[in-house]
Amino acid sequence: MSFFKVYLMFVEDLINYLSFKIEDNFSDKWLIMVQESLLKAGIFTIASQVLSILILVVVMFLILFLVLSFLLSFDIVVCVLLAIFLPIIGFILLILIKSERRYNEIETSIPDFLRQMSSMLRVGMSLENVLLDLSNHGQGPLYDELRRVVVEIKLGKSFEESFDNMAIRLDSKDLQRCFKIILNAHKSGGGLADVIYDVSEDLRAMLVLKRERKSSVMMSVMFLILASVVAAPFALGMVGIYSSFMLNLGKSSDICQVAPIAAEIYLIIHSILAGFLIALVMYGEFKKGFKFSIPITIVAFLIFYFMNTFGTLFFSI
């Protein structure tokens, strides 16, 4: 047996051991919440195993950053904080980005899905048979959610509850309204095929409006990103360079000592607010600001740190 296979077996056993420990020491409610977040992102892996892998990545980053701190004389506290928070923040960002991408894919495929439903209903199929047929033959994240709905219905849940759960999982008010219209038409026994077709056309027009809004505000968004990750860190890094220069000349003052700390605090606040402003401009929702605030803050702070640390060496050449 080769060394590589032995190493893989060791890592797999370690992941399983950590997974069992996590399941024993963490509450089921918290693990279920993490599992739901993974499912929203299209990651069909047990939550405890994903958390075990994250712990191992944090340990690897700790070793790597500690070695770099000794070799390059970096601040060991900063290296430890980066080693701990970078993998965790990266994991959260991965979940948010994959969830957003999966949500957009589902949202863009819903009009065609509803049109398929309308066509199948018009040839005489019942709504139950339509959902079963589409869940068996469809491919993509929307059909994965539909299969979950079919399973819930088979387990005894009503149509209303199953579709409401699907809309809640996808966190879409538009979908909730559409499903309520479809379910009310199904209850009343009206022309369900025509109602579904009209809903699909309305959703298609709404998606076109959303794309037009995104394209119209893209220049403003790019300006905010450049100002947050380039202009502000560079300008505030120059404040740190000036403070270091004055301290080296022996002209120390309270302002020179406080200025770098104040610049860091201002940069963090500025980056977070910029992320929420971008979310407000693009989506009209503040809660999506975390998706932008976290990476903008990290990139801006890293640029500021390197500018503040190595800027003096650069200007002295």
What labels describe this entry?
mainly alpha, 3 domains, 12 helices, Receptor-associated Protein, 317 residues
Summarize the structure.
This protein has about 325 residues and is an all-alpha fold.
Task: Please tell me about this protein's structure.
The chain is mostly helical and about 325 residues long. It has three domains: about 60 residues, no CATH class; about 110 residues, Receptor-associated Protein (Up-down Bundle); about 100 residues, no CATH class. Helices cover about 85% and strands about 0% of the residues. The chain has twelve helices and no strands. The model has no long low-confidence stretch (mean pLDDT about 80).
SSE blueprint:
Elements: H1 3-25, H2 28-40, H3 47-72, H4 76-122, H5 127-137, H6 141-154, H7 159-170, H8 173-188, H9 192-216, H10 218-248, H11 254-283, H12 290-316
Helix pairs in contact: 1-3, 3-4, 4-9, 5-6, 6-7, 7-8, 8-9, 10-11, 10-12, 11-12
- Can you count the helices? 12
Profile the largest sheet. Answer: none
* Secondary-structure element order, N to C: HHHHHHHHHHHH
Which fold name corresponds to the CATH topology of the largest domain? Receptor-associated Protein
Work out the radius of gyration. 26 Å
Q: Given the helix and strand composition, which structural class is it?
A: mainly alpha
Instruction: State the domain count.
Output: 3
Query: What proportion strand?
Result: under 5%
* CATH-scheme architecture of the largest domain: Up-down Bundle
Number of strands: 0
Q: Overall mean pLDDT score?
A: 78
Q: Helical residue percent?
A: over 70%
Distance between the termini: 54 Å
Top CATH class of the largest domain: Mainly Alpha
Shape: flat
Uncertain stretches of 5 or more adjacent residues = none
